[in-house]
Amino acid sequence: MMLCGARRLTAAAGCAALGHFAWRQQQRAVCEPSTPALAGKVALVTGGTGSIGWAVATSLADAGCRVALVDLDESRCREMASKLPTRSIGVAFDVSREDTVNAGVARVVAEMGGVDVLVNVAGILSNNKALETSADEWRKVHAVNYDSSFYLSKACLPHMVERGWGRIINLSSWAWKSGGLTAGTAYSASKAALVGLTFSLARQFAGAGVTVNAVAPCYVFSPMIMEQLTAAKRAELLEAIPVHRFCAPEEVAHAVLFLASPLSGFITGEVVDMNGGFQMD
Ligand SMILES: NC(=O)c1ccc[n+]([C@@H]2O[C@H](COP(=O)([O-])OP(=O)(O)OC[C@H]3O[C@@H](n4cnc5c(N)ncnc54)[C@H](O)[C@@H]3O)[C@@H](O)[C@H]2O)c1
Fold first, then answer.
1. Is residue 36 pLDDT above 70, yes or no?
2. Distance between CA atoms of 20 and 218, rounded to whole angstroms?
3. In the chain, where are the structural domains located?
4. Does the active-site annotation cover 187?
5. pLDDT, tens digit, for every residue of 135-184?
6. CATH of 37-274, one of 3.30.465.10, 3.65.10.10, 3.30.870.10, 3.40.50.720
7. What are the pocket residues of ligand 1 if the criterion is a CB atom closer than 6 Å to any ligand atom?
8. What separation in Å is there between the alpha carbon of 6 and the centre of ligand 1?
9. CA of 225 to the centre of ligand 1 (A)
10. Model-level pTM greater than 0.85?
11. Distance in Å, CA 90 to ligand 1 centroid
12. For residues 52 and 252, is the Cβ–Cβ distance under 8 A?
């Protein structure tokens, strides 16, 4: 009787184990894709000839992506795209206007066949605080830093939904939640708005296989920030940032690469902080 019970128990455990095994196999297909899965995917990177954009484009191309390098100067875009190891293209258009974005994305789709990964890097800095910010400056900063991501997402999402897979990564900034230590009001507010857009798109398109995340670095060692900080301010910041150094553009690219890869498939609607321990929450 005991043996019979034990046998029954073993069979039940075996059955459960088999069920678990089959379940794991199914999960593996979703959760543990092989690393070359980015090979051949098309990545559109805006601000692609800037410091962070170029680091992102290089890292995605090294992972096998064909890159559409987007910025304002066509010959520079083309020249830099030709240096990438995959069949990539350079396309210039103004990301702050819907008509130019739609025409630009149409060019990319015609040449590359679609867009699988969209990285919204293009941005401009403004250090003016609220009372010094004109309505024109406010609008311009929002148009480049925030409206652009809406226009580009809207233009690229149908291609991702059609394929049942896509990645959107927005370059926010620590300024979104710090209020901007050195950065101004329009800049901080535009980067916070970008987080709202990230959450909204993440919720809407999660079921379609598209993840939408943001990266929020602070003080990346690029001309955008570094040329604007005096030597004294730099020294003060290096003391205050717990890791005692600034972020490298390549480190932002590492985070973007992870969010672009199939390995991050269960992460959506997330903001990855990159601030060297400046703010822990
Ligand atoms: N550098 C930092 O410390 C830091 C920190 C947090 C977030 N960021 C964000 O990272 C992004 C890249 O910053 P970066 O330091 O590489 O700056 P960058 O100035 O080197 O690059 C920005 C790029 O965007 C392009 N661009 C600007 N307006 C455009 C437009 N209307 N259409 C198309 N392209 C346009 C520029 O030509 C430039 O190549 C920005 O969104 C910035 O706000 C930077």
1. no
2. 44
3. 1-32, 37-274
4. yes
5. 999 999 999 999 999 999 999 999 999 999 999 999 999 999 999 989 99
6. 3.40.50.720
7. 46-47, 49-53, 71-72, 94-96, 121-124, 144, 171, 173, 217-220, 222-225
8. 67
9. 10
10. yes
11. 17
12. yes
